[in-house]
Write a structure and sequence with these properties.
Layout (H helix, E strand, L loop, with lengths): L1 E4 L8 H15 L8 H9 L3 E6 L2 E11 L4 E9 L8 H16 L4 E6 L2 H10 L2 E3 L8 H5 L7 H6 L8 E5 L1 H4 L1 E2 L2 E2 L1 E7 L2 E7 L1
Parallel strand pairs: 4-5
Antiparallel strand pairs: 1-2, 2-3, 3-4, 5-7, 6-7, 8-9, 10-11
Length: about 200
């Protein structure tokens, strides 16, 4: 399996990715905010996504969004093809897109909203902490992205203070040192190539 930073060669998978995002949200009864083909195409073309493939087939996907003039970064739209679930693919993709976020935006806070326990676990392993919504970007465009979610009415009734999603946040300066211990670079093997990952 190959897990790569996206490029134009991955555009052939954009329709499948969009459809699986929609289908997955329908099955779970929760909302991944729906994204247009044009939006996903731009993310892939700009190298702001990670795509996993195997033998020419699409396996998984996740992309980067920036908010509040680059002060916040979200790793969004994590999705794995049904045929490849429960194999650790989501963890590998999340690690890769997190690394890409840290390289492109080293000073940005990295955040996510999720209802999935598996994603919460992955985020926690990367150094994210659960936070209240006021700790996230207050960029209106970000919150407008929730309009396609089935739970949007709940979010608005609660004045955007909370919803069914758990907010999680990685703050770079909090993770440069942990209890006085410097963060060390460890390596993860992607396709026989070593990639660095932040860890204690």
């Amino acid at each position: 399996m190959e897990i790569e930073i996206s490029s134009d060669k991955h555009l052939m998978y954009v329709s499948e990715i969009q459809q699986e995002m929609y289908d997955s949200a329908q099955r779970r009864g929760t909302g991944i905010a729906k994204r247009s083909i044009e939006y996903l195409t731009k993310k892939i073309s700009e190298g702001n996504a990670v795509v996993a493939t195997e033998n020419g087939e699409w396996v998984g996907f996740c992309y980067i969004e920036t908010w509040s003039h680059g002060q916040f970064v979200a790793n969004s739209g994590l999705i794995v093809s049904p045929d490849y679930r429960n194999r650790g693919v989501a963890t590998l993709i999340k690690n890769k897109v997190f690394q890409l976020s840290r390289e492109k935006y080293p000073n940005a806070k990295v955040f996510g909203l999720t209802t999935g326990l598996a994603v919460m676990k992955i985020n926690s392993d990367l150094g994210y902490k659960p936070v209240i919504y006021s700790e996230l970007t207050q960029d209106e465009e970000f919150w407008n992205g929730c309009k396609n979610c089935v739970n949007y009415e709940i979010l608005m009734k609660k004045e955007r203070k909370n919803c069914l999603c758990t907010a999680m946040l990685f703050v770079p300066e909090n993770n440069d040192k942990v209890n006085g211990t410097e963060i060390q670079q460890s390596e993860i093997d992607y396709n026989g190539e070593k990639e660095s990952r932040l860890s204690v």
